[in-house]
Amino acid sequence: MISVLFAVLTALSNGVASVLQRRAARTVPDAEAMRLSLIGHLLHQRMWLAGIGMVIVAAVCQAVALATGPIAVVQPIFVIELPATLLMAGFVMRVRLPRRLWFAVAAMTLGLALGMASAAPGGGSASVQGAAWVPTLILTGLFEAALIGAALSTRGNPRGALLGLAAACGYALTAALMKDAMARLENGGGAVELFTSWQLYATAAAGMGALFLLQNALHAGTLVAVQPPLTLGDALISVLYGVTLFGENLRTGWWVLPVLVALVLIAVGCVELARSPLASGTAPPPTRRLK
Q1: Residues linked to residue 32 through DSSP beta bridges, in sequence order
Q2: What is the 3-state secondary structure (H, E, C) of 135-147?
Q3: Rounded distance between C-alpha atoms, residue 241 and residue 221, angstroms
């Protein structure tokens, strides 16, 4: 229950951060795409800095969640960050949410519940055994390089979608490294072993790389193009890391069918929510009432 609670808090913080960063990224000139100057420009945006603050809060909550639960349980919960954020934004802006948005929220919530109940993730170890990180990092690097290379050869929403998936892979890798690093505390090594582990610093590097890719994804394409591969990619790749690195278990056989239905529900809901003006941090025009 502790891991689920902090996973939910992580999702809420990440959702707020995503909307704030999206609004800030829209102010960046096209000439700064895929350059470090992009971050320099964003550092002057208060809204982007507020988003980074929420990212830090999310990182702390995520560390607690991963230290107390399987990665295949924690990471998929993050799919609720977009619907939760839009509901909060609608409440704060006193905007009446359209019926389609509520249906999208229901679809994503039902999809998450169905997927978790069907896959029933669990088990596994708290840390990575042996040298399993070596092939994992090599394959992840090749996958990221292929996505970035394909993104650089296109523009607009296709680039945004590809970079969104690359960012998702980076965030999933960050979560796996963070879980392995946090296991050092549980193994009796304390803070000394934690701060001397390479996984801790690899977590920071992977997180910064994923953040850079996400900023470029949001700059290149619309939220409709970026959010679905970001949301589903993070969940699915995290589950893959959980199974292959930490030995976590999933139901197979005919249980795969309801899991596929769950993924469709989440994808449809995610696309519909990303189309909402609230997803870009702006309120829709007020509804006119007949007198």
Answers
A1: none
A2: HHHHHHHHHHHHH
A3: 28
